[in-house]
Write a structure and sequence with these properties.
The structure is a homodimer. Chain A is an alpha/beta fold. Chain A is built from 11 helices and 15 strands. In chain A, the strands form 2 sheets. In chain A, strands 14-13-12-11-7-10-9-8-15 form a 9-stranded mixed beta sheet, with helices on one face. In chain A, strand 1, helix 1 and strand 2 form a beta-alpha-beta unit. At the A-B interface, strand 7, strand 8, strand 9, strand 10 and strand 11 of A face strand 7, strand 8, strand 9, strand 10 and strand 11 of B.
Chain lengths: 340, 340
């Protein structure tokens, strides 16, 4: 974990998704201080304060937004309110760190882009399925070390457990939730960009379905897409809400990276049918098969880098355009998806 | 292994691909007798006779084709000669069993269909990646037992080792080899049809590339496609010649089947980075994760069924239209593939 010498204070607005805990843990472990929290739901706020005893509950969003001590606002407010909140924060001189999906429309992306240009403030997105998964980060190190040559194809399976009765109503609406490719798919697209190092990506195919949740006609419980980079590498991903209850975790997330000289498989969260451990990475090269279990060995440099970026106005954690590009590709794939 | 009481004799014409050994082993284990072999290459013929001591080398194709004792001709003659040979065999009253790809063009498929209608003879294809893989057959049994509900999506990774210097020149040409989707892809399409039980399939996307073998401009070392059944299930497969030399077998073939109530993974030929055993099947349902290792436990009923079909004029092993349909979808996906 990278730490910074300077004091770095952040506040939280919006606890609609539990990802906020992952976001806060990452920032806290990297040395940030959590100052204040606001959510209109008093019970959620109380739970949050119990988890982070030093945090002060604020009376309103404004109280946090105008606090000059606070450098960054982290938010898991529901998706359709993220962009509006982020722009308010940036206009008040704060950097903003949103749960994914960061934006729901191409218009929101353009608003964020313009606001970033005008204010110089950051609008980062928590693409947890890469930046908060040591197996995923280790695979990237293997690629960067040249172990598999040029990345030619990436296949990602990203099943998620629905926990239907535990979800709020907005989760099932496209207007407030964004649709499955915009939501879960944006993670996969961000990984493809990161693993290929390319930003120019076209959508060759995308599709969504509602196979098993017809009482929510707007909901998508399945999505898939095929992407292509400018240099001809492709990505297939499938995202779904069909993780069976018998699986030992919320989803058997897998990534298969085919390179010109080797291949990598990441079993992110479980080694299904074998062991409960996570972050298993399987490398095959010209001379070997090798299994790595990297939990606790890689860390999550994104968070320390983000703090340092906010202090030094750099882009080490993630470039602003990379964030906007990943979300834009997801939204384009969502909008052009055929309904199965 | 199912055996038949009646004597069932077959002959072999064409040893261009080593798959002929798998085809013969399957038939012999199911009780057929291998009578005669012909290939224009005397060395290949000698090797074949050494492996199967009872077999008699013939002086020409005709000698086998007109032999009234022989019921079926098995052939791994090079792909562009298969259809012609098969039709000659059928016209002479023989059933025909070809290595995949069984045909290279839609016109060849139509010729086989008409010949089948006229003669009543069979033109079967060796879709080995399902019918000769116990893990793949076991997964089908799990599906048929209702373990995962309705099949919604199938993802197949089918890497193969190139062994570039060991391949004949025709292998690298599209006219004689058929292209990677027609060739290796036909296996994957056949599996999708078998696992969904559907025959109406459209091609939503397909692409091919020559990433690393530019000295053979016609060759495709990568292919991918997305298919959709009439009821809305989809399939993504990727096929390639990039198996790294460090892998303990020729390819880390995987199949992931997502059902409405559970999921299945098949690790066909190796448990990469873990163990050398094959036929590992991972089932996840509402109440459990379960690993099965099924080598030696399922057998290969296709071959006994095929012999029985030839004797009794039934379609238990595989329907003629299923064979033609799988090949037609592969050829359509190949023809419409974009070049990456």
């Amino acid at each position: 974990m990278e730490r910074t010498d300077k004091k770095f204070l952040f506040g939280v607005i919006g606890l609609d998704h539990d990802h906020i805990y992952g976001m806060c843990d990452g920032l806290l472990e990297a040395g940030a201080e959590l100052k204040a929290v606001y959510d209109k739901d008093a019970q959620k706020t109380a739970q949050f304060c119990q988890k982070y005893p030093g945090v002060r509950p604020a009376r309103c969003e404004e109280e946090i937004l105008v606090n000059k001590e606070i450098s960054l606002i982290a938010s898991a407010i529901k998706p359709d309110l993220r962009c509006g909140l982020g722009i308010r924060a940036m206009n008040l001189g704060k950097d903003f760190f949103a749960d994914k999906p960061g934006m729901l429309t191409l218009s929101e992306i353009e608003q964020v882009r313009q606001c970033h240009k005008r204010t110089g403030r950051k609008y980062m997105v928590y693409f947890s399925e890469r930046i908060h998964v040591e197996g995923a980060l280790f695979a990237q190190q293997l690629i960067e070390a040249g172990e598999i040559g040029e990345v030619l194809q990436v296949t990602i399976l990203a099943p998620h457990r629905l926990r239907k009765t535990a979800r709020p109503e907005w989760f099932f609406t496209k207007e407030q939730g964004g649709g499955i490719i915009t939501d879960i798919g944006s993670h996969q697209i961000e990984q493809f960009l990161a693993y290929t190092g390319e930003e120019e990506v076209s959508v060759l195919h995308s599709a969504v379905a509602n196979y098993a949740n017809r009482e929510y006609p707007d909901f998508e419980d399945f999505g898939e897409a095929v992407l292509r980079t400018g240099s001809g590498a492709t990505c297939f991903f499938r995202v779904d809400w069909f993780t069976p209850d018998g699986l030992g975790t919320w989803g058997d997330g897998r990534v298969f990276i085919m390179g010109s000289r080797g291949s990598i498989e990441i079993r992110k969260y479980i080694n299904v049918g074998e062991t409960r451990d996570r972050d298993n990475v399987f490398l095959v090269t010209a001379d070997r098969e090798q299994k790595f279990t990297v939990t606790g060995k890689v860390g999550f440099p994104f968070f320390g880098d983000l703090i340092s970026d906010c202090i030094n106005r750099t882009e080490k954690a993630m470039a602003q355009e990379h964030v906007l590009n990943a979300m834009a590709i997801a939204i384009r794939a969502e909008h052009t998806a055929q309904r199965l």
